[in-house]
Amino acid sequence: MYKPTFYITMEADPARFTPEGQGLASRLWSFTAPVDMKPSLTQELGVLLRMKCTGRPYWNAADAAQQKNWEVVARPALANKLHSVADVLRGCNEKRYQHYEGDIHHVWLKLQLAPYQLRIRLDADAAGNEYIPDALALVDAVRALANSPEVQAFAEGEEQLAVYLPSRTEVEALAATRAAEAEAWAAWETAAKAAEEEALGEAGGDAGDAGNGCAPADAAGESAGQAPLPAKPALAPGLSITTAEFVKPSGEGLVLPLP
Question: Rounded to the nearest 5°, which phi and psi values hold at 185?
Answer without folding.
Answer: -65, -40
